[in-house]
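Quick one: structure for this chain?
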Amino acid sequence: MKRSKLILLLVLLVLIILYLVLRTNRPQEKLARVFDLDTLSINRIEIYDAQDTLKMVKQNNVWKLIYPVSWEADSLKIRDLFREVITAKYAITPMGTGKEALEKFHQKDAEALHIIVSDEKKSIHTLFSNLDNPYDYFRYAGSDKIYQLKAKVTNNYNTDLANWRSPHIVSHKEEELLKIEVSHPKNKYTLTRNGFQWIYRDAHQEFNIHPANMAMIKILNILEKLDTYIFVDSAQAEYAHKFKNPYCTVKLYLTGNRMQELKFIEHTQGYYLMMVDNDPNVFFVVVWDTVFRFTRHPDIFKMQGLG
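Got it. Here's what it folds into:
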């Protein structure tokens, strides 16, 4: 090999080694957790802005909303909050400090989204904002140092109550159901379970329902998982009187001497409003198919498959 080529190879080798050494020894950006808390001990979360406030507590290992309504929290939303925000890390080098930074990053108290997370020993109060960027900015209450977090907190974890409520309204497995009593303008009937056999009965007839009857299967499916993300709160004056004469009423007789009553009234086109156990404090918007399943003609229940 020529001397000139050997020198070039040696120079190239030295440069590669130098690059690797510099890369290995370069200073790393220090990271810290946004909420330096024991995640297993976190038992309270408060989220508020200039308009609304949400409060959630952990009771018997289940997260529940306690303000502005009392309701089980959406477990998937809570999981995402812990993963993307509560246990997230941020670069400790501030993006800005001082009064000008508070204005630049929209971090004044009245314009930011506040998130307070508490465990059994302490609380950490943070303020989040976004400037139409891929990531949010935040600071700790009482501090004017602004940091960046690689998450869309203000978009995904704001005070919109609909995002935090558990959508599960009715959930009963078939083996929990003893009898289903239905009344609507065209009929009144009962579905009674005897072991694995369902029996249809109304004022004119009684018969066993085939196990593959789709009308019966669809009723059982909706009663096992009747969900909605659309809630109507504080509308008792507007709707409560209409539930005195509902379009459809479904009474569920359950194991353990339990009972649940569902009432439906017509709402907007393609939707019904549902009230559970005569509670007028909150109504639930459900699609028309939910009610349609209970208002089928009796002959549909005689089919062996389709329904």
